[in-house]
Amino acid sequence: MYTQSFNVPDSTDGSTLKVVPPAASAHEEALQTQFDARIDADGKIEPREWMPEAYRKTLVRQISQHAHSEIVGMLPEGNWISRAPSLKRKAILIAKVQDEGGHGLYLYSAAETLGTSRDQMLDALHTGKAKYSSIFNYPTLNWADVGVIGWLVDGAAIMNQIPLCRCSYGPYARAMIRVCKEESFHQRQGYEALLVMMQGTTEQKAMVQDAVNRWWWKCLAMFGPPDADSPNSVQGMRWGIKRISNDDLRQKFVDATVPQAKVLGVTLPDPDLKWNEERQAHDYGQIDWDEFWATVNGNGPCNKERLGTRVKAWNDGAWVRDAALAHAHKQQARQMKEAA
Ligand code: BYC
Q1: Measured in angstroms, how far is the CA atom of residue 247 from the centroid of ligand 1?
Q2: 229: CA distance to ligand 1 center in Å?
Q3: Counting atoms of ligand 1 from 1, which one is nearest the CA of 232?
Q4: Residue-level pLDDT, tens digit, the chain, 340 residues
Q5: Which of 101, 172, 188, 319 has the most crowded Cβ, counting Cβ within 10 A?
Q6: Pocket test for ligand 1, best of 133, 187, 252, 303 (most atoms within 8 A of CB)
Q7: How far is CA 321 from CA 14, 299, 312, 328, in A?
Q8: 260: CA distance to ligand 1 center in Å?
Q9: CA-100 nearest atom, ligand 1
């Protein structure tokens, strides 16, 4: 059963007192029962339907963080549009960065269906209250970083996002289907760009290896803290928002990436990475969680720069929003006049 009293264990021997949940009206109880049944049956919850407040809040948190990640995620790669090595690579990169902007917009729209406004969400981002993916607070030092972001960062993103296509909240699940299709193209273009570099000069190969060394551990951390330290996981999974745990997704990513690294001809920078016959999975080394939390909490190498760039873009774009609104008002007034 998926009720609001998940965290209240029933005593088995009757020796301890049960926590008494706050009284709910019979109507609310009936709604809760309907909601639980839908979740149990693996059905979808749609915007106008009743849902527990905590479910709504969790979704607003996760979807808005996801939207912010897409929007901030445009910045590290956007830096390379003017320095792409060929017209073909520039066109691909422009399209990719534009796709990320689109993903952010679908996701803001999905979060709006839960009753939050875009202004509220953007304000939380711009004032540093909202989180976005840790991965975008690291610098892109050379062209190989763009390929590695496609291969590893987008690869990790897809691994995390495919299960979200089955999320219990309809608008989020549907947005993720299109996002995943586009992310899959992003991942392949990154891998292909790296394959080309790995057939190039010694310097080009060294650039790829250097970029892999710098991004590998950050990508493993992207999946979030270990399951034992993940406060939102149990509830998220019971509500069918999260389908696979942080550690299980991380493991899937490692197992999928090892053979790809072999084909590419790069070494993954982990001396403890090895196949474990018994587990039928790769063992891997320790992730630096102190560094992860420092970055999540605003102290990574590029946090201030990323947020500063977003705030500036928002302020610089104020006249465009004002002009679009004024135009819409004029059109509306004209239509009303014509209709009168
Ligand atoms: N970075 O209890 P947990 C992309 C936070 S976009 C920062 O496990 P949950 C791409 C977490 O929010 C990639 N913070 O949480 C775009 C929570 O804090 P709050 C973004 C992180 O929600 C452009 C706390 O740690 N993808 O790939 O059960 C170009 C405890 O964590 C991170 C999504 O957003 C992190 N890495 O699970 C290229 C996917 N990890 O909120 C690529 C949707 C954890 O309690 N989101 N935290 O203050 C999710 O799937 C889940 O929210 C997470 C975390 C797996 C990220």
Answers
A1: 13
A2: 13
A3: 2
A4: 333 333 333 333 444 444 455 567 899 999 999 999 999 999 999 999 999 999 999 999 999 999 999 999 999 999 999 999 999 999 999 999 999 999 999 999 999 999 999 999 999 999 999 999 999 999 999 999 999 999 999 999 999 999 999 999 999 999 999 999 999 999 999 999 999 999 999 999 999 999 999 999 999 999 999 999 999 999 999 999 999 999 999 999 999 999 999 999 999 999 999 999 999 999 999 999 999 999 999 999 999 999 999 999 999 999 999 999 999 999 999 999 999 8
A5: 172
A6: 133
A7: 62, 32, 14, 11
A8: 25
A9: 23
Comparing C-alpha atoms, which of 236, 115, 118 is closest to residue 168?
A: 236
| Structural contact between residues 243 and 166, judged by C-beta atoms closer than 8 angstroms | yes
Ligand 1 pocket residues where CB is under 6 Å: 61-62, 65-66, 69-70, 73, 100, 131, 133-134, 153-154, 157, 160, 222, 224-225, 230-233, 236, 242, 246, 296
DSSP state string for 132-166: --GGGGS---SHHHHHHIIIIIHHHHHHHHTGGGG
Both tokens assigned to 156: 């990790």
DSSP string, 57-85: HHHHHHHHHHHHHHHHTHHHHHTTGGG-S
Please give the sequence-ordered ranges of beta strands (E in DSSP) within 168-297, or none if there are none. Answer: 274-276, 281-283
* Amino acid letter, 231: P
Nearest CA to ligand 1 atom 10: 70
In the reported structure, the alpha carbon of residue 240 is separated from the centroid of ligand 1 by a whole-number distance in angstroms of: 16
